[in-house]
Amino acid sequence: MKKETFEAIASILGNGYTCFVNKKTEEVFSAEAISLAEQKSTEYQTFEPLEGKLVFGMMQAFTDSVEDFSNQSELMEALTFEQPFSNFKRKVYQIHLADEWIAFRNQKIVELLMG
User: How far apart are CA 49 and CA 3, in angstroms?
Assistant: First the structure.
């Protein structure tokens, strides 16, 4: 598969959704964009959302990469308490690092997919 295909897959998986790739055309579809029959067809390859453990590791790696100590501390705190996923997401938007987080996460997912 082309890198662009992996990037499209990463974008959907990063949001926690399953996606499907047409094996011939490499078109990428979210689950709601294609019929159930197409989803079950052998013409499509299925990609499931990542396990929580993997995503948590990405959140930790991103936190480690943040250079601003104050922002890094806030993200570390978000990961420490109950509901770390929702806390982290809320905090990353609150401190205006969402674009950086999404780019980081998508790059890590692409690396995983490409092996």
Answer: 18
The 3-state DSSP class for residue 16 equals coil
Structure tokens at 113: 């997919």
Domain coordinates of the chain in residue numbers?
Answer: 3-47, 52-114
List alpha helices for 1-115, DSSP H. 3-14, 36-40, 52-65, 69-80, 84-94, 98-114
Q: Residue 82 is encoded by which pair of tokens?
A: 């109950």
Q: pLDDT for 32-76, tens place per residue?
A: 999 999 999 999 999 999 999 999 999 999 999 999 999 999 999
Contact 43, 55 (CB under 8 A): no
Report CA torsion sign: 31, 39, 2, 63: positive
Q: Is 63 exposed, middle or buried (0-12, 13-18, 19+ CB in 10 A)?
A: buried
Degrees, nearest 5: CA angle 27-28-31: 135
